[in-house]
Amino acid sequence: MQAHHPTISEVQGNTPPPWRGRSEWSLWLDCIGGLSANVEKVTEVLGFFGALLRPRLVRSRLERLHELGHCAHLPTVPQLLVASRHQLSFSLGAETKLMYAAQGIPWTRHNLKRFVAYPTTMMDPVGLFLPMNSIIQHVLQTFHRHATYDLVLLCAHPGGPEELQRQLEQLSAGTHPHQRSLEALVEDGSYHDRLRRDVPAFVADPHVSPRPIPEGLVPEPLLMLAMDQFKDVRGYMAYASRLDVDWGDALRSFLHLAFNETIGGAVGWQVGRQTLSVASCEPELVARHVPRSDDRQAHSSAG
To answer: Taking the CB of residue 84, how many other CB atoms lie within 10 A of it?
Structure first.
């Protein structure tokens, strides 16, 4: 008899989505929302594109995180954008697909709902280009094993973590302005209860360490390495700062991301390679997950 390999949901202790069994039309209507919700969405989209055109704003957010002790490196904007392509293609996308499959969530349809519900939550895998409320919506809308990365990003906005805590209280009371869409999207029925423990703990100690990646979460060693490297802002910034890239590389990465996360995701086409610069990862993480010396020199894996 073949041994049972636990799914990613079993390892993480996920519970079924609370919206399972509801009609598809009711879920879509909840995600679309009303007039005030959509005015807010448009405002947040404008804020995102405004940050793209103002590198100094992004730099100031990064410098604030550095001053607060959340990262030791200050990458350039091209390094941030190329690292985001690596993170999304090799870590976030692959990990999320595994979880969706284990939870019985349709990948394309659910991501379209997420985009309709709050577009900016899917427009910036780095997070430094997003307005504060877009980060908060992302945290409330999407399952995180431990939301340390995004909680640290909120520290780039004065009062950010405290605002997330306030909106969690609204969610508990059933009075959140996006209550219906959040309840129609969350992928794990126990996730918001976890946040109600994790967010106050972070507010009390903003330098709390992220939870370790569970052993054997996925069988692919390079994916385990990517998840461990990108599990917090400190690891992401260290990785980005080691990349030898310029604005041309950044533009290609941005265009790949834009296509893959919109049209490509809908039709099942991906442009660009699934890439991880092993040389840019922390040596101790490489030794933990990819112990063979020949694998340490690998730069990319075909998607």
So the answer is: 24
What are the residue ranges of helices labelled H in 131-262? 132-141, 148-154, 160-173, 179-185, 191-204, 221-229, 233-241, 247-260
Residue ranges of domains in the chain: 8-301
- The upper half-sphere exposure of residue 231, i.e. CA atoms within 13 Å in the direction of its Cβ, equals 17
Q: How far, in Å, CA of 28 to CA of 189, rounded?
A: 19
For residue 275, the SS3 value is strand
- Residue 108 contacts residue 116 (beta carbons within 8 Å): no
Q: How many Cα neighbours within 13 Å face the side chain of 20?
A: 12
Taking the whole predicted model, whether its pTM rises above 0.85 is answered as yes
Residue owning tokens 């995701």: 265
Distance CA 8, CA 188 (A): 12
Residue bearing tokens 């946040």: 195
Q: Counting Cβ atoms within 10 Å, is residue 245 exposed (0-12), middle (13-18) or buried (19+)?
A: buried
pLDDT score for 297: 40
What is residue 268's three-state secondary structure? Answer: coil
Reported as a single tens digit per residue, the pLDDT across 208-228 is 988 888 887 888 898 889 989
